[in-house]
Design a protein that fits this description.
Pfam families: SnoaL_4 (PF13577). It comes from Streptosporangium subroseum. With about 140 residues, the protein is an alpha+beta fold. It has a single domain, classed as Nuclear Transport Factor 2, Chain: A (Roll). The chain has three helices and eight strands, in the order ββααββαββββ. The chain has an eight-stranded mixed sheet. β7 and β8 form a beta hairpin. The chain is globular and about 35 Å long. It starts with 7 loop residues before the first strand and ends with a strand.
């Protein structure tokens, strides 16, 4: 598990709508498609986030499974675009060449205001084949 602050970088992106600014921190050891997914999530670009997945990609979140880019797009659009939040990658752990865990702290105006999550990514062909989010 990597918690080395020297490897952290931060980006800020505007969000259309009620969110004025969103900050995302990532490490330079995270695969590019995961960094792209996290950036798309933080900037509420649901299409870009969905396009990070294989055609048959899956997301498991809060007891539900979303299959395929269109369901993932809808999950992002309807489930996560409501809140103002910042996301900070607090660590990452390569499991295998195809599997990567990213520890994420999310702070915002959602119920509870702060949550530490693990994003368990499975990659295939340079895209995300599966994402399991656990808290």
């Amino acid at each position: 598990m990597r918690h080395d602050a020297a490897h952290l970088s931060e980006t800020t992106a505007p969000h259309p709508g009620p969110v004025e600014e969103i900050t995302m921190t990532t490490t330079d050891t995270v695969p590019e498609v995961i960094t792209r997914y996290l950036h798309a999530s933080d900037t509420h670009d649901s299409r870009m986030a969905a396009d990070c997945f294989t055609v048959d990609g899956t997301v498991e979140d809060e007891g539900r499974t979303y299959v395929g880019r269109e369901e993932i797009f809808q999950w992002r659009e309807h489930g996560l675009s409501t809140w103002t939040y910042t996301t900070t990658v607090t660590g990452d752990q390569p499991v295998t060449e195809e599997r990567h865990r990213v520890m994420v702290r999310v702070e915002g105006n959602f119920p509870g205001g702060l949550v530490d999550l693990t994003f368990d990514f499975t990659l295939r062909g340079g895209l995300v084949a599966a994402l399991r989010i656990v808290g």
